[in-house]
Amino acid sequence: MFDYDYPLYRPPSEARSLIFQVTLGCSFNKCSYCNMYRSKEYSERPLEEIKSEIDLAARHMPGTTRIFLADGDALNLPTDTMIQILDYIRPRFPNLERISCYAMPQNILKKSPEELQKIYTAGLTMFYIGIESGSDIILKKVTKGATGQTIIKSCQKAKDAGYTISCMIILGLGGKTYSRQHIEDTAKVLSAAAPNYVGALTLHLEDGIRDEFLTKFKEPFLPIDDSEALSELELLVSKIEPSAEVVFRANHGSNAYPIGGTFPQDKQAMMEKISYLKSHPELCRPVGFRGF
Ligand code: SF4
């Protein structure tokens, strides 16, 4: 329907959502494991262009229930611009249930509580936050531009303003060397932040980014294998103790095994499933696929 500026990404759970590109690229664009937007320079699209796409979509898909605002960190838009876009969207889609976007911890921390509240009231109610790890050492090695503390702060700030938050973490991001530290610190951050949803992926470096990742890691990177990824998952699930319910999913295609459940009530069942899978490696994904 529109001429999207590719590549275009959205979270798996937004597969059926209508997507408006309100920004192009990522305003940070430095995480060493991510080449989603390396081909684009960050920019904010002209409001009139966005409005004409919203009009077009409203004519063709008036029953839309979910909208995702792309690209990599739409929340970087000035608050007034974001509110103008949301105010334009809302009346044109009477069945709308949710508007969401990706957000970095820095995007959230840059907004005042009042700004976050205004944006929420205007209709953007969910953030997908790539936290990747809770370990400051790893976050620095992958040039994430965040620390465990800034991640916790940003999640709490967003939750205080009413947002639903979904966080992504990456198994294997510290390699073998930092495996334990990665998982223990990530469990601490997830327990403190208690996001509504957590998605666990396994590290998969695309060719265009591998050299940069290895250089920035500043020491030999020893990738974990599927069985170690499962051990990371086991340790992670055992250590997460959130103060509120957290829906946990490790069912992304990059993972060796699909695991899912809700903390705290499904923790034991998830532990048992992981333990069963560890003793049945034949249930692993097809031989030959490796995340790294
Ligand atoms: S992981 Fe997110 S913040 Fe980092 S470069 Fe990629 S899109 Fe930008």
UniProtKB/TrEMBL annotation:
- SMART domains in the record, alphabetically? Elp3 (SM00729)
Required cofactor names: [4Fe-4S] cluster
Q: What InterPro entries does the entry give?
A: Aldolase_TIM (IPR013785), BchE-like (IPR051198), Elp3/MiaA/NifB-like_rSAM (IPR006638), rSAM (IPR007197), rSAM_sf (IPR058240)
According to the entry, every stretch annotated as the Radical SAM core domain falls at 10-243
Does the keyword section mention Metal-binding?
Answer: yes
- Keyword annotations: Iron, Iron-sulfur, Metal-binding, S-adenosyl-L-methionine
GO terms for molecular function, please?
Answer: catalytic activity; iron-sulfur cluster binding; metal ion binding
Write down what this protein is called.
Radical SAM domain protein
Task: Tell me which species this is from.
Answer: Nitrosotalea sinensis
